[in-house]
Design brief:
217 residues; alpha/beta; 8 helices
């Protein structure tokens, strides 16, 4: 029986999370409790993200990125309802006030706002705080994050389409020097996800591929 794209992505994501936890234990560090799979929303590519969130596996996560949309609060509330019912964590992109308002589980910071992480971590120790990174140099110096999201690993769409893909070799080297666990983002789908096993990634992040795999038909 052929496995679905959703099953493949979730299985690979869990393998990556377990491998990352094992590495932390061997290094004498407590593993960070992180979702193996992160669904990143985008107003243009995921216009009804709560429908996908309602179908994600329990234990996964959603990163809501409003990008200034006028219906951000309404969408965030719908996502909170869907994720809470499903047992999925919700992180809000950049907007800590909105995260507070909807009772989110944390925030995700764009690379330009990574300096906010230490203050957020101190103010909300119960939150999970992730941040975007686009270079190994950024990964090596981040503070206050529970995890970073490095992209694009493969050729990607959306805002990352103009960026050169890192490739697996550069991604693997970047995770070795990272100060925090690292998610892989960018151009990942069911056909190439297995290539990430052994790369040092702690999980998979995605937009279109996750929506296509888990969203409504």
């Amino acid at each position: 029986m052929n496995r679905s794209d959703a099953e493949i992505l979730w299985d690979v994501a869990r393998v990556l999370a377990q491998d990352a936890a094992d590495v932390s234990r061997r290094a004498g560090k407590p593993p960070v409790d992180l979702p193996p799979l992160l669904f990143f929303t985008d107003p243009g590519r995921t216009p009804r993200p709560w429908e996908t969130a309602a179908r994600l596996p329990a234990g996964s996560g959603v990163v809501f990125r409003a990008f200034g949309a006028i219906d951000a609060r309404e969408t965030a509330l719908r996502l909170r309802e869907a994720t809470a019912r499903r047992g999925v964590r919700l992180l809000v992109g950049l907007d800590a006030e909105l995260a507070e308002t909807v009772g989110a589980d944390g925030v995700h910071l764009p690379e330009r706002a990574l300096d906010q992480a230490p203050a957020l971590a101190a103010a909300r120790p119960d939150w999970r705080i992730t941040g975007a990174a686009h270079s190994p140099e950024t990964l090596s110096r981040v503070t206050g994050l529970h995890a970073a999201v490095l992209s694009p690993v493969f050729t990607a769409g959306g805002a990352s389409s103009a960026k050169s893909a890192l490739g697996l070799t550069a991604f693997r080297e970047a995770t070795r020097g990272a100060a925090v666990p690292v998610y892989a983002l960018g151009g990942i789908h069911a056909a190439n996800a297995h290539a990430l096993i052994g790369s040092g990634a702690c999980g998979i992040a995605g937009v279109s591929a996750i929506q296509a795999a888990f969203g409504p038909d």
